Automatic annotation (TrEMBL):
It comes from the Bacteria. The chain crosses the membrane at residues 21-40, 46-68, 80-102, 114-137, 149-168, 188-211, 242-262, 305-324, 336-353, 373-392. InterPro entries: Sulf_transp_TsuA/YedE. PANTHER family: INNER MEMBRANE PROTEIN YEDE, SULPHUR TRANSPORT DOMAIN-CONTAINING PROTEIN. Keywords: Cell inner membrane, Cell membrane, Membrane, Transmembrane, Transmembrane helix, Transport. It is a multi-pass membrane protein. It is found in: Cell inner membrane. GO terms for cellular component: plasma membrane. Its main location: membrane. This is Uncharacterized protein. Belongs to the TsuA/YedE (TC 9.B.102) family. Pfam families: Sulf_transp.
Length: 396
């Protein structure tokens, strides 16, 4: 009995220590942001947004991979519907930002050519994220939580991204340069495109609901018996996991604020690719003639988006510490590490030919009214189906 009590007290102290560490890291981040502002002031907000994105993802467990994968694997659309909510809110907020900011503000919606590269990239990315156990955002979030498997996944992602950047010129000549950039408001009126997109998202939401509802028991109303007034602020907003919908709403507002203040929507793989390029460049490989990096005025570590993946990991780390959840989580077997690495490589490579991962080329592209976001999302869905088959056959 005493041993159990001691273990319980030790576990409680461990959680308190994690919370203290989260506070310390938060203070260090504030100091670090001051130095960023002091010496490279235009990049401070990138770091701050990365921290916030990582924190929200960790507390809500918002996982776009699950939104695609679980449709086929367990016929569940809970996360799928949260993703749709995020897209719908982002669509409305982006619409107001695009419509009411003056042309002199130079805001840049995420528009990308749509073609065979979009489909191929989406299918490969869908397969990769399922066998890796997470997309770019989910992998970074889980690295911050201490997952060994996702650490291998992000290593594969970095390698795949630089290989994709190397092959970018081939894909550019084959498909990207020959494919049209289709901005939906050019086909309709601006608000007509908004109405159409919201309508499509509503239909998809209802289809997702009925796809799941046909295989589960009717919803039951649960009567809460706990006294919410006795729950502390920490327990309610930090310790307790947030719902997927809460994560979706917060991410939509954060992405919109990112878009408004930094004039580009949230993306991850651009930063990952420039970090990879910076590392390879430091190894005395000349990448200046690569088409992908040649088009950037601030390549490699100087690119502002290079701060996003790093700060997202730290934001997730802070979230897991604040809730007392952080621990090193080893993979169940070596085959999971191998699958994570391969999946990460596939995601990194495919993101370069399709214009991003399911953040930049999907969650940010659709609210920008770029047709390639819709085609990419459908292609990811197809890839997720095949990725699920591989998962069941070789891993589960």
């Amino acid at each position: 009995m005493n041993i159990q009590l001691d273990k319980g007290n030790e576990f409680k102290r461990l959680k308190i220590n994690q919370l203290s560490l989260a506070v310390i890291i938060g203070v260090v981040n504030l100091i670090f942001m001051f130095f960023i502002y002091r010496f490279i002031g235009d990049k401070t907000l990138y770091w701050l947004f990365g921290i916030l994105f990582g924190f929200v993802l960790q507390r809500s467990r918002f996982c776009i991979t699950a939104g695609f994968r679980d449709i086929f694997l367990i016929r569940n659309t809970t996360v799928t519907r949260a993703v749709i909510i995020c897209l719908a809110i982002s669509t409305l907020l982006f619409a107001f930002i695009i419509s009411y900011t003056p042309p002199s503000y130079n805001i840049e919606p995420k528009l990308y050519p749509v073609g065979i590269h979009t489909v191929v990239g989406g299918i490969i990315f869908g397969i990769g994220m399922v066998i890796a156990g997470g997309c770019a955002s989910g992998t970074l979030m889980r690295v911050g939580e201490g997952y060994q498997m996702q650490l291998f996944g992000i290593i594969g992602f970095f390698i795949g991204a630089i290989v994709g950047a190397y092959n970018y010129q081939w894909w550019y000549q084959l498909s990207i340069s020959k494919s049209p950039v289709i901005y939906l408001p050019d086909l309709l009126s601006f608000w007509g495109a908004v109405a159409l997109q919201i309508g499509i998202l509503l239909v998809i939401y209802l289809l997702a609901f009925y796809w799941e509802r046909g295989t589960i028991k009717p919803f039951k109303i649960k009567i809460a018996t706990d006294n919410k007034s006795s729950i502390s602020f920490y327990q309610r907003f930090i310790k307790k996991s947030w719902t997927y919908t809460t994560g979706a709403i917060l991410l939509a507002f954060l992405n919109s604020l990112f878009f408004l203040t930094l004039k580009v929507p949230w993306s991850i793989t651009t930063g990952i690719t420039h970090i990879s390029g910076g590392v390879v460049n430091k190894l005395n490989f000349d990448l200046s003639h690569w088409l992908y990096f040649d088009s950037s005025s601030n390549p490699f570590f100087q690119h502002p988006l290079a701060l996003i993946p790093i700060s997202m990991v730290i934001g997730s780390f802070m979230g897991s510490l604040a809730a007392g959840e952080f621990r090193i989580r080893k993979a169940r077997s070596k085959r999971f590490l191998i699958s994570a690495f391969i999946g990460g490589f596939l995601m990194g490579y495919s993101a370069r030919l399709s214009g991003g991962c399911n953040i930049g080329a999907f969650l940010s592209a659709i609210p920008c009214f770029s047709l390639h976001g819709w085609v990419y999302g459908l292609s990811i869905l197809i890839g997720s189906y095949f990725g699920g088959k591989i998962l069941l056959r070789y891993l589960l």
